[in-house]
Amino acid sequence: MSLKYALLGLISKKPQTGYELYTTFKERMIYFWSSTHSQIYTELNKMEHEEWISSTYIYQEGSPNKKLYTITTKGEEYLLNWLLSDKIKPAKIKDEFLLRASAFHLLSEKEIIHLLDAIIEREQRVLEATRKWQHDNEQDEEFGIGDFVTAEYGVMYAEMYIKWCEKVRKEIRKRSRGN
Amino acid sequence: MSLKYALLGLISKKPQTGYELYTTFKERMIYFWSSTHSQIYTELNKMEHEEWISSTYIYQEGSPNKKLYTITTKGEEYLLNWLLSDKIKPAKIKDEFLLRASAFHLLSEKEIIHLLDAIIEREQRVLEATRKWQHDNEQDEEFGIGDFVTAEYGVMYAEMYIKWCEKVRKEIRKRSRGN
DNA sequence: TGCGCCATGTAAATTGTTACATGATTTA
DNA sequence: TAAATCATGTAACAATTTACATGGCGCA
Prior knowledge:
By secondary structure, the first copy, chain A, is mostly helical.
């Protein structure tokens, strides 16, 4: 399982809390990885046991206390070993809309167009958010090569998705004119 | 969970066996859905209990016997209801290579290029296979709108992935010349 | 003679999701 | 004043993966 590598990769950039890692997952990594806070906290505790990371407890007034995790030498070695391994597992995707698309033979033109429009809108929002994030952060010294290439992927992925939706719309219109 | 809808969608096109469904998943739907044979067989049995599908046992000489599943009216209603529902869950993606890419700050130019080349090769194989499948089947009367649009997606997705890899390669070369 | 294909299943283990639990501060 | 944010965790449940189990046929 790769959640541990995902967490190690992020912590290797700078020490972080579980909450920060969780927000990074849901805000920035959604188009290539996903997880929930309950899974992240559990995994972080396991990883500390394995001594891939170490934590410092930070007392705060006003807001709740927190644990800051730092990667260890052992953790860095473990991560690097995985990064360089030859066996790269193929992506695992569960795309509900594509699944619906595969059953378009059961729907009318109107129904398909309605679904497509909703998805185009959704993807446009994702695209705008990614571009905004990229623009707001690219001058930041913390913005590294990994952030650059994955943000670029996010943009290309959303653009492709929208283009595909429009292609499908054209095809649907064409087919229903034909009937 | 949507595996049941995935199966219903496929069975709605024509009666199929668990084995046929399983091969469709691993050969054709990999870029938008994945499952294993053990999960598929279990799910099919549950779905028959729910009366969304019914089965006919087919005795064969030479090869093992099999069960052919057909969708019921109840199953069709259930599927259609899901197809038209407004809440379309966002795609859940676990892309190990993108995860590695997000940790590229830990690798050298040479190491990154090595990984990229392997992925480009992999994606080119996927792309060729999808195009071949599309070409070999588009004249088939069973090749419907769902097959058309999802195959198109597969092609666009793989093309985008390759373009992204090449963009990353250029960026990596640029950055290491800069140092 | 060993591997892959056809064909279906169960059991065990791991992963992932949702709900429960707490509680102060900030924002609408 | 209700919801969202910060912050961390556990428990129960659901989904998924890997291993176990069987066995004939065709191919190299």
